[in-house]
Amino acid sequence: MFTNKNGILHVEEVDFRDIVAKTGTPVYITSRRLAEENIRELKRSFDFAFPLYAVKANNNLTLMKIFAKEKFGADVFSAGELYLALLSGFKGENILFNGNSKSDDEIRTGVRAGVRFSVDSIDELYSISDIASQEGEEVRIAFRVNPDISPETHPKIATGLKTSKFGLPSDKIIDAYRIALETPNVIPSGIHCHIGSQILDVSPFVEEIEKMFDIATQLENIGIDLEFLDMGGGFGIDYQNDGKCRFESFAEPVKEAFEKGLERIESKPELWIEPGRSLIANTTVLIAKVNSVKKSYHNFIAVDAGFNTLLRPAMYDAYHRIAVANRMSDEAEEVYMIAGPICESGDILGRDRELPKVEKGDYIAVFDAGAYGFVMSSQYNGRPRCAEVLVDGSRFYITREAETVADLVAKQRIPEEMFR
Ligand code: LLP
Asked: How deeply is 300 buried, as exposed, middle or buried, from its count of CB atoms within 10 A (0-12, 13-18, 19+)?
């Protein structure tokens, strides 16, 4: 869906310059077709599982509506994400409210919306119970288990390590469910796990499922009838090449492990998955404009998007493919550092990239920016957040307007008496 037509990047049938003329830069541009292709491929490979879209990866309402229409559930991590999910058409009963630090207000919002909870601690269990009884509701819960699995990924996005802040360790989890059984207004009905993100090898997922069934067998012994086992998200994509997730390479071993596990228990829980990145990373390109080119100790291209717009390279040393959007047919000639406009030396979008000769006024395309892109952007250095666009064939829609400097001050209040 990202093609080179006469040297110019097109998103589906749209010339990126037509979009930039309307939105300015930087801008995130998403292909609807790619999103729908990912959905189809996920559903085909994981036809034995129920997918919850991980809202944290991209909370653009138009995209979320696509997932809601495709009957996805939603994994939300805050009352804000819950609000966005309900607004986009996700049904409360298909929403799992995750999070290691939910406030009582957030819990109340969740209880009123009829969601299920992934419970991170006994303190949280009691809060849910109290609030559910005040609201006259019964709440279905899963505990988040920390399985102590170490997948090969960036340590900042591995979540099931012993040192991780999420969930309860395997050796405390059965006691937690025992407590839940005796706690009013909560119904323990699932197990939740998530071992990390951008995981390319399937074996940690298989290990995770085996560990969940170890727990499931013990839970049956204490009389819990399991409705769902939620293995979380984390399926990695190919950032080096095409940005795609090879869903089938995960699905087959996962299915085998799940079916084997089912033989160990009486109940017939559903398998839930929570993909984020794998569904949307490759749908989106970030376009930034070149403000200047210079030779220093390296060749630098200075563009108008930095870690304020796309944090991943600075935060995780993440690699994103980069091209020159208006010189797609030119041969690579130079090696460049692509620097953002932020006043920090870590503000580099790409290092040592071979690109065609770049000039001021050219445009850089940063691919696979759909997941953890806009959602992690900030106003640092007084830069308003940029626009988002959805392309549908030969049409495009501005789905989020760029902020202006007015947004930098929108919520600020100056105590005027201080300056009289
Ligand atoms: N479920 C839970 C409980 C999660 O914590 C996450 C991601 C997901 C599902 C979705 O994982 P995915 O399928 O997208 O890998 N900002 C980082 C990634 C942080 C992931 C946080 N949790 C990045 O840019 O790489």
From this structure: middle
